[in-house]
């Protein structure tokens, strides 16, 4: 019956029941025998009937909405955040769910308010800090949640993210294998480290551990987002370490500034300084020269977060931790 809207009357006729029976199955207002309920649901599937959203919600006792807590605050690069948000929204629609956006500045009060309102069935949280004050609340809520990121104590939570420690280590290994003996990490803005944001801290920890493992000299510095600040950081770094020959950049907003500043400082990429970035592929590919990079898989992480959440809503057991392995793409900058 493609090409037109299937009616509830047609569903009832197909299932051999009254229209009111179909309505009761959808609304849950009356108890219907398991056999009849199954017959009605089979007819809905067979005919491609799309009940009104309110009826679906009543039938499932759900709002068919998930809340996404998004970190729109200092030091967070909005274009990358929007990739995660878009992935969550797109994935949720595949499960017939809408997304309610909360900003991280609302903190625990915002989560508690929305949970109490019965507006949403579950939560996806981003910008997870190592000592995140939302974690105790998440453990108390009846609504399930998935975190994009890991707190220091993730027990009892469901978390998914890129393995940022491995990503930092992979960048070091790539440079060390090419003979670079003195390298630096230009990381997130200082405010991100000060908040204890997990992904930034873990990248730095992976970088430091790999520097020791490969027996190269390395330094990890925060990196701000304006050209003047990036230039000043690089000028100091190259003055203090004139034999520096490798850079790892984990700050999407600063990638272009780093390359421009190196040119102004008389350093050629990759002849004088090799550069590896942790960033989305299109950021790496648009750079000049194109950057060897570890992909931040926003789309994959967002899809996986929603999939895990839907499994939890259906009462299924899911893994506590899902870490996506980093993949390094070789380009002109190394």
Automatic annotation (TrEMBL):
Gene3D superfamilies: 3.40.50.2300, lambda repressor-like DNA-binding domains (1.10.260.40). Residues 6-60 form the HTH lacI-type domain. This is LacI family DNA-binding transcriptional regulator. The keyword Methyltransferase does not apply. The keyword DNA-binding applies. One of its GO terms (molecular function) is DNA binding. The lineage of its organism: Bacteria, Bacillati, Actinomycetota, Actinomycetes, Streptosporangiales. Keywords: DNA-binding, Transcription, Transcription regulation. PANTHER family: LACI-RELATED TRANSCRIPTIONAL REPRESSOR, LACTOSE OPERON REPRESSOR. It holds the Pfam family Peripla_BP_3.
